[in-house]
Amino acid sequence: MDNSNNVNPYINTIPKSLYDYNSQFNELEYKRFTELMIASNVMFVNKTPITSQVQSVEDFMYAIDVQRINDIKNCVKLLKGLAVFRQQCDHDQLILIKYGALEIHTLRSISYYDYQNEAFNIAIDENNTTVLQLTLLKQFGCDLYNNFKLFLNSLYRLYDMDDNILNLITVIILFNPNRPNLKHQETIKLEQKVYMHLLKRYLTMKYQNDCESSKRYLQLINTLLDLNFYDKRYKESSMSRPTLPALIHEIIVE
Fold first, then answer.
1. Would 204 disulfide with which of 22, 139, 165, 229, CB 3.0-4.6 Å?
2. How many CB atoms lie under 10 A from the CB of residue 172?
3. Which residues contact 13 (CB under 8 A, 6 or more apart)?
């Protein structure tokens, strides 16, 4: 997907003065980072035996809906584990969840994406996992399939099988000050900057190379544009489906 004409609002929003150290978190950073890691435990993907493989688009959509609902519910649990989210007014909490949940689902689908076999391994219940081959997306158009495959493969390499990176990107998406009708936009913007700063710091400590960490940071932040694109595509296509699970309907209907 070509985003060359898009301006990414997430880039260059953190003061450079915050990057004067690169060996360890300070006390406040460590407290915020640790809180996020604990809250993010709800997003852990349980590994269950593979017992089936999806053969039809209908079954593909059903399995994705199951996982999407699970991701949305876990996203809410994660947010409630963060003091800064609980401090937001009820109105803004609902807005952040409503407009961020599907992007989070798409982002975190990388955690159950089988890179080698180009498939999603979706846990249907505690005892069964079904395999969804990415090629089934070709029935929605080859462009969608090719672009989404490139996105997943790129994200897979960028997040480096590191859940800490995935968790930080998750809250950066959730605390998006550009969501519509927020009452306390500046407060949300500040919290997003804090987590963007933590991501930058974490990458610096992880790779111990300013050039590598900066490159990865920018590439990770640029994935937010792709997530927004796929969120819009999903909402548009979902409106033509005869039925939708109640929770997903509530999320996508303006």
1. 22
2. 23
3. 193, 196
Amino acid identity at 206: K
Measured CA to CA, the distance from residue 111 to residue 158 in angstroms comes to: 13
For residue 29, give Cα distances in angstroms to 22, 24, 135, 245. Answer: 12, 9, 42, 39
pLDDT tens digits in sequence order for the chain, 254 residues long: 544 445 444 444 433 444 445 578 999 999 999 999 999 999 887 788 899 999 888 888 888 888 899 899 999 999 999 999 999 999 999 999 999 998 999 999 999 899 999 999 998 888 889 999 999 888 877 888 888 898 999 999 999 889 999 999 999 999 999 999 999 999 999 999 999 999 999 999 999 888 999 999 999 998 888 888 888 887 777 777 778 888 888 888 76
Q: What is the dihedral of CA 246, 224, 1, 108, to 10 degrees?
A: -50
pTM of the model: 0.85
CATH, domain range 23-245? 1.10.565.10
